[in-house]
From TrEMBL:
Coiled coil: none
Organism: Nonlabens xylanidelens
Subunit structure: Homodimer.
Lineage, highest ranks first: Bacteria, Pseudomonadati, Bacteroidota, Flavobacteriia, Flavobacteriales
NCBIfam families: lysA (TIGR01048)
A molecular function GO annotation: diaminopimelate decarboxylase activity
Protein name per UniProt: Diaminopimelate decarboxylase
HAMAP family to which the protein is assigned, alphabetical: LysA (MF_02120)
EC number: 4.1.1.20
Pfam families: Orn_Arg_deC_N, Orn_DAP_Arg_deC
């Protein structure tokens, strides 16, 4: 997609709007598969939570990917997209036994991350294969809110509780067919990640009927020019060699699994918004857009960086702007960012909008959620319509206050 393509989409479908480039998604998926091509058996489960539009799920199905899900609803979306339930893994946190049982009934691979549910599920369903999520107590991730493998994390069963897991397995006779970890998002130091995998290999050796080891994901993508990212090729070469060695020691070949989300879709996305007002104050020039953290919350929630380009005036002289939204609270996308000169009515494009943007959007301030557009084979395809007031009102039940209330 070039700037004119994006401007045409904004003109045709309105602003704000999310746009995803299918070619980028395909290229990222193929890059990941290629990086781990030395592993005999590889399975990629796309993390649905990153971008859950059913057309995106169908695209990953076409590529041969499975799905990583965290809710019953995500499982149902995957099944609606035609994904084989055997290629879907369910990795929830803190959900009820009832929800896990409903998912298990659909033939989906279950992944359990706490001792209580593991024992309850194993006692009731000893013949249903279960993966166990381990917390390796390794700190990884670019932000405290997305680092989930450290000792204070609520995720996974502590490696110090492995004896408890083994006792539950023995007492229930349950079938553990996989082990799993996820250290966090935005992994940069592959040495730290590889250290965590050694802990997982050591844990895996304690289970005799494994079909797969799931190494999670969290691979970092670049957010700005010159930004560093996970060296996926180096990681692939080193981890594949180590995995093959483990399989030889284990006595048979099992599957290497990953569950990337952001890595596959982040760079495919552009979020387009129109400038409503350019406001000069005594110290700052604000560019106020027709959106806010109700549509792109990551900068406010995580301090995440999104590149911002003025695609209406790409060759203009750079000036410093603070890009802000229309929410009546702190709603700043960027402070004092150099951007080509902005005038009211220009369209700004936010990069890395493919992951955790629409999926974390809301109707705060009773604003509509924007449309989603997929750029595929050189054409734009609406894959989700812009909401209307009917969508805001749907599900609301109005009380009749016409009759006076009497005591």
């Amino acid at each position: 997609m070039n700037n004119q393509d994006l401007l045409n989409i904004a003109r045709e479908h309105g602003s704000p709007v999310y746009v995803y480039d299918a070619e980028v998604i395909v290229a990222q998926y193929q890059r990941l598969v290629s990086a781990f091509d030395k592993a005999k058996n590889l399975r990629i489960h796309y993390a649905v939570k990153a971008l859950s539009n059913i057309s995106i799920l169908k695209l990953f199905k076409q590529l041969g990917a499975g799905l990583d899900t965290v809710s019953l609803q995500e499982v149902e979306l995957g099944l609606a997209a035609g994904v084989d339930p055997k290629k879907i893994i369910f990795t929830p946190n803190g959900v009820s036994l009832e929800e896990i049982e409903k998912v298990a009934e659909k033939g989906v691979q279950i992944n359990i991350d706490n001792l209580s549910i593991l024992e309850q599920f194993g006692s009731k369903h000893p013949n249903t294969p279960v993966c166990v999520r381990i917390n390796p107590h390794v700190m990884a991730g670019g932000n405290a809110n997305i680092s989930v493998g450290h000792i204070d994390s609520k995720f996974g069963i502590s490696i110090h509780q492995i004896p408890h897991i083994l006792r539950i397995v023995e007492n229930t006779g349950m079938n553990v067919n996989g082990v799993h970890m996820h250290t966090g998002s935005d992994i940069l130091d592959i040495g730290v990640f590889l250290y965590a995998t050694e802990i997982l290999f050591e844990t895996a050796a304690k289970f005799k009927d494994l079909e797969f080891i799931d190494f999670g994901s969290g691979f970092k993508v670049p957010y700005k020019e010159g930004d560093v990212s996970t060296d996926i090729e180096d990681l692939g070469a080193q981890l594949s060699e180590r995995f093959n060695k483990f399989c030889k020691e284990y006595g048979r070949d099992i599957t290497m699994a990953f569950e990337p989300g952001k890595f596959l879709v982040s760079e495919s996305g552009q979020f387009l918004a129109q400038v409503n007002v350019v406001k000069q104050t005594t110290s700052t020039v604000f560019a106020g857009i027709d959106s806010g953290f109700n549509h792109l919350i990551r900068p406010m929630l995580y301090g995440s960086y999104h590149g911002i380009r003025n695609i209406s005036n790409p060759d203009g002289k750079n000036r410093f702007y603070s890009i802000v939204g229309y929410i009546c609270e702190t709603d700043t996308f960027a402070n004092n960012r150099q951007i080509a000169e902005i005038t009211e009515g220009d369209i700004l494009s936010f990069s890395n909008a493919g992951a955790y943007c629409y999926s974390m959007a809301s109707n705060y301030n009773s604003r509509y959620r924007p449309a989603e557009v997929l750029w595929y084979n050189g054409k734009s395809h609406v894959i989700r319509e812009r909401e209307t007031m009917a969508d805001i009102l749907k599900g609301q039940v109005q009380v009749n206050f016409e009759e006076s209330v009497t005591e």
